[in-house]
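Onboarding guide, step 5: your first structure request.
Type a short instruction followed by the sequence, for example:

Predict the 3D structure of this protein.
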Amino acid sequence: MNLLIMKKQLENQGLPLNEQQIELFSKYLALMTEWNQKIDLTALKTDEEIIEKHFYDSLLVSFGLKLTNQALIDIGSGAGLPGIPLQIAFPNLHVTLLEPTQKRCLFLEEVRKKLALGNLEVINGRAEDIVTSKREFYDVAIARAVAPLNILSEISLPLVKNGGLFIAMKGPSAEEEMALSKRALTTLFSSLEKVQHCTLFSNGDIRNNLFIRKNKPTPRKYPRMYAKIKKNPL
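The system replies with structure tokens like these:
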């Protein structure tokens, strides 16, 4: 998939991008390729793979989701995925990229500056670290390939406003992870609202994006320290 094909596919899904936005994706791609020689950003080697399996994949969650000027946090952002593609496609979003690795944060800051993304913020830290100042601050929290759902739910949902959304971007293991996470979602006063099933074009890779609605404020004792979460998930 190249950027023109991505543009066409997104138009077919009701997400038109203008030429300026396509140019921003081109600059982002160039920066990712350049920095990937210095730090570990992605295992994907070709532009076509990055465009389809990172950029297009990141935008799948927006199909049928009304994104305007909400506050969105991308937890464990890595190379800026899905937060930067969502910021490019929806420039009025207020996107926070939360990433624990300092070297990757330097890359994210470079992208923010070079692409002049005024509504983008980069935080070097973990969800458990910022929950004191950002508890129930975000309309949407999203995480892609970060941790199993029963662990991810506890570190993510405390950051989401009451009534907001937590989106876990998963692959073929989504159904199994949901089965193991029922207790966690109940304990955290949240529920699965829908599952978005998608298939990538080139190789048929399966994507299952879980949309989880927060129904009540998260009890103050969550999240626990990450070592406790990992050792004894909800």
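Each response can be followed by summary notes, for example: Residues 69-231 form a domain with the Rossmann fold fold (CATH 3.40.50.150).
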